[in-house]
Write a structure and sequence with these properties.
66% helix; single chain; Multidrug-efflux Transporter Regulator, Chain: A, Domain 2; two-stranded antiparallel sheet; Globin-like; globular; mainly alpha
């Protein structure tokens, strides 16, 4: 009913996040209506980027108000839906322009970018990091990239984010082995295409992702709450790094 695997339900039971209301004579876990409402809150919390422990603490708080929580979550999702609707309209505008071969005076080209963050932060980036070695290395590398190179970069980045979003939806924790593998691929992606990126540099990137809403909005296009999940996964790598 909730599209949650048996393995996930067993794990939620083990950590005390979703304990079954009882068991059948054969030993099967049984869930009642309250269990389903709690499971819905868990899935919403995960979609909003909360960790399982944060969700458990919230739901177990004696002052937790389910009605108030649902209303607040609805408001957040409505805001996301409006952004998505604008992006869909922008795509439709581009499709309309391409399929009907309209002249430029029939519609403004800016229509096809409505709902998207414009790529006009180059000056800001140079002002902030222009003297850093990473910025200079990135400028040196990217100046020689072809259109095919940029297409490959976008493809690789999208694959990493999409797989991370799938892990988030599946309920895998930020320190799960598969998620750690994605964090390593993300670091290698930056290192291969832009500048030398070790764990410390990647953690700096994580701080940037969560502090600048423009980065978060771009990452969260691949899955709501993905920025927070990715940031947590990047930071957890230090805890799993072999000691020297």
């Amino acid at each position: 009913m909730a599209s949650v695997s048996v393995r996930t339900l067993h794990y939620y039971d083990e950590i005390g996040l979703l304990v079954p209301a009882g068991r059948s004579r054969a030993g099967y876990r049984l869930y009642d209506q309250d269990s389903l409402f709690r499971l819905q809150q868990i899935k919403i919390g995960r979609a909003l980027g909360l960790s399982l422990e944060e969700i458990r603490q919230t739901l177990d708080d004696p002052h937790f108000d389910q009605l108030r929580a649902l209303k607040g979550q609805r408001e957040k999702l409505e805001a996301q839906a409006q952004t998505t609707a604008r992006m869909i309209a922008a795509i439709d505008a581009a499709l309309d322009r391409l399929t009907t071969a309209k002249r430029e005076d029939d519609m403004t080209l800016s229509d096809i970018f409505d709902g998207f963050e414009p790529d006009d932060y180059a000056g800001e980036a140079e002002a902030k990091w222009g003297q850093s070695a990473a910025y200079k290395e990135s400028r040196r590398r990217t100046q020689s990239y072809t259109e095919k190179d940029w297409q490959q970069i976008k493809l690789e980045q999208a694959q990493i984010y999409d797989e991370a979003a799938a892990a988030l939806v599946a309920g895998k924790p930020a320190d799960h082995p598969e998620v750690r593998e994605l964090v390593m691929r993300h670091r290698q992606f930056i290192d291969r295409w832009f500048y030398s990126c070790d764990m410390s540099m990647q953690i700096n990137l994580a701080t940037l992702y969560e502090s600048d809403e423009r980065f978060a909005a771009n990452i969260d296009k691949h899955g709501q709450g993905l920025t927070a999940f990715l940031v947590a996964a990047i930071r957890s790598q230090m805890d799993n790094a072999p000691s020297k």
